[in-house]
Amino acid sequence: MSELWLIDALKTLCPSNSSIILGIDDDTAILRPTQYETLVCADMLMEGVHFILADAGPAAVGHKALAVNLSDIAAMGGKALSAYVSLALPRSLANEEFILDFYRGMSTLAQDFDIAIAGGDTNLWDGPFAVNVTVLGEAHEKGAIRRSGAKVGDQLYVTGPLGGSIASHHLNFRPRLDEAKLLMDNFDLSSMMDLSDGLAKDLRSICMQSGVSALLDRQTIPLRDTLKNNPDALRHALCDGEDFELCFTLSRAEAERLKKDPRFAFCTDIGGIIEGKDIFWSDDRSPMLWQGFEHGKNQKG
Amino acid sequence: MSELWLIDALKTLCPSNSSIILGIDDDTAILRPTQYETLVCADMLMEGVHFILADAGPAAVGHKALAVNLSDIAAMGGKALSAYVSLALPRSLANEEFILDFYRGMSTLAQDFDIAIAGGDTNLWDGPFAVNVTVLGEAHEKGAIRRSGAKVGDQLYVTGPLGGSIASHHLNFRPRLDEAKLLMDNFDLSSMMDLSDGLAKDLRSICMQSGVSALLDRQTIPLRDTLKNNPDALRHALCDGEDFELCFTLSRAEAERLKKDPRFAFCTDIGGIIEGKDIFWSDDRSPMLWQGFEHGKNQKG
């Protein structure tokens, strides 16, 4: 694997778009300034923590490494524009086939959403495989939706089924960028985040940052098909993590409009925002005490 | 090391600035759009490749991980605005003291240049220590300076002494952001890059991308003090790597102005741009055949 081969391969494989003035070729990428707020997120995925390379294969890891970041951009209600990829590659994997498979997995997803891959840093070492992807995006003209805007009286929604993502969903999920745009174009959302650590934990983040609490309806929380006969399905749905669905709040008036619009059948009302600190189940008003998922105590900021 | 402790520590340690609307607190950072072109770069540093943690200590690694990216922004003639930090942390290092030392080393440099640290992703694993930093910046009002703009007849300059950086310079260097701004404010540069892989290799990149060649003056290439009695000093200066000085070209007329201005005494004329493909020594017109430094065949795009 020569350096010139690698640069040529990346130039061939990596898509560009109209946000890019200069991509992989210089000390930095050069981009047109965004019209609305610029969004930036970075996530590192590591062998044995976020994937098992021998099971997943390089293409799926390439897909996931980009997808988790696109999910963060979707969570702000934004549009993703470009990605920057840093690889820590074990010397045993430093072959052309591995690199091509990895980048093909990532590029297929990038092309689906017209995202440029505009920077790469490929390094060999004696450690395991790790990949960092940084994504730049642009907020919707209505502005970025934060975790901190949930208000007492709002309704609480998720964009799809939860739990059991470890079987395959955590590797092959489609980030909810299109759904986020449709929601932003049609409704005024008060808060949003993506569910990466499980609803039990992530909902606490919305509540804490908004200074509110929530009532959760255990009857309506949508379960992934593979959990339907699992006696512990609800706990899986709240605690498994890596659902990468969006969790959002909006006023009751907005929620009434949403319920009547068949384009939003993918959204499920799972409860409401109340005053207080602890999250409760809506049926018996008992506290929801589950904690959600931690990748061995990781932290995203 | 709890997650809440970590978020609080990062919020306390990480500087902000006027480019940041929302930093470490949500799914993405929210930034004001840049006025001129946006610049983006990402570099991953890894144990045993870019540093030996036991020798360097966490603060020096924090400094270097940011500094190498600032050097890339300087190389475009730009201003650095904000940094995003992803850590792959061995479980044995997951203690508060290590994290604080690392971030203090990075924050000290960030504050020096008024750069925000606006995002973090901290992950534990069973591998060695690695850190990726992404930096966003803004081009100078004159535009970003590329590698590809060198023209036949231009003069070739470097901003400081080269070689022998392994002793300490590669860990504690000050990225040339101030020097880049002073140059941009006062001169029209035709091309620029930062010297990370050694002048011998990096100058080839300028030449190849500009479709030109260079004459190098072996008498004027500035040597680091520690090389002064080294019989092989010139080869070290061209091949050692990690100098993180800027190499730039400008027209002869601009170079004449620069030579007369005492504020630019840090700049040294080391040759000129000619037609052709191979780089030659200016005294005997023999080809310069040295190859420069590779971190075990890494590649930056």
Q: In CATH terms, what is the fold-level topology of the largest domain in chain A?
A: 60s Ribosomal Protein L30, Chain: A
Q: Give the CATH architecture of the largest domain in chain A.
A: 2-Layer Sandwich
Tell me which protein chains meet in the greatest interface and how many residues each side has.
A-B, 81 and 81 residues
Q: Tell me the overall shape of chain A.
A: globular
Helix share of residues of chain A?
25-40%
| The level-1 CATH class of the largest domain in chain A | Alpha Beta
Oligomer: homodimer
Segments of chain A where pLDDT lies below 50 for 5+ residues?
Answer: 296-301
Q: What is the number of domains of chain A? A: 2
The CATH superfamily of the largest domain in chain A is identified as PurM-like, N-terminal domain
Distance between the termini of chain A: 35 Å
Structural class by secondary-structure content of chain A: alpha+beta
Helix and strand run of chain A: HEEEHHEHEEEHHEHEHEHEEE
Q: Helical stretch count of chain A?
A: 9
Q: How many individual β-strands of chain A?
A: 13
